[in-house]
Structure prediction request, 344 residues.
Amino acid sequence: MNRLLALLGITGLLWLLTGCGAHERIKVSDYPAPKAPVPARDSIVIPPALKPGDTVMIVAPAGYVSNRNGYIERADSLLRAWHLVPVHGPNLMARHYSFAGTDAQRLADLQAALDNPSVKAIWAARGGYGSVRILDSIDWSGFEKHPKWLIGFSDITVLLNALYVNGYASIHGIMPISLTHPTPKRKPALVTLKNLMFGKQLSFRIPADTANIRGEGEGELIGGNLSMLVSLLGSPQQLDTRGKILFLEDVDEYPYVYDRLLYALARAGYFDHLAGLLVGDFSAKHGNEAFGENIRQMILKHTRGKGYPVVFGFPAGHVVKNYALPFGKRAHIKVTHRRVTITY
Prediction:
């Protein structure tokens, strides 16, 4: 019996080494090596400031647009009030399941906006999901000849990060879908967006959160939606956060999901050598309150003792105020026990 088991063991081993019978042998080279992050360029190109009469194209790279709520018309009216000329991507109102048309349609609209030198800014109508599906098919060569502002947040984080790692600034800011329910409380989102589009420097103060880490820092402003940033790990759009001011926000996830996503960034080194951290809105789903940590505690365990300022409660992300942020531009933050001062 022992001789039979030994024989079977040797035969089985030979069977595995020679390719598992009739099946093709698997080589390590059959699997592509993981992509390394691409560092940002030494200098960031800031698109030209808009001026009256410039054209802004509204496109939908992700979720579908519903005309029922009239937010595209409100966006058009807003741009006209700013003395800008709104135009729409030909497929803006298309729908393919949850998407604003097929991947090919959404890509065609975004590509047309990037390539057209008469379009001075591109405004994403909404987020949702879908930007990553067209990311690798985008041709940036036309944009590089005529840089322009790309504006959006949430799922559009994918495109903002693609621009940043290629050396171009963009605006993390309000989208037309946010105009579904007009309210005076949205004025800061609109004012900060307009000012950035027209080339103005912004400086403001917000009350200090008791959980803040005091200090002062300066660096290029980067980041966006937490879920989207994690989805880009290991890709060419993975960020090099060293010496940068990182902004994070997300919406409608369970606390344990936020914890898992933050650990993913921490293990990738995102929190190790920052110049500062801005934490925007993080609304959580109900029904999982027993997790034991809130978003502040989750973040502090990765940032405490690192030597840079941390700001909680920054009014940006999926909130009404949603201050516009110029990704790629240098920002300065100062955190005291009373207030936070931010300039960019």
In short: The two ends are 79 Å apart (CA to CA).
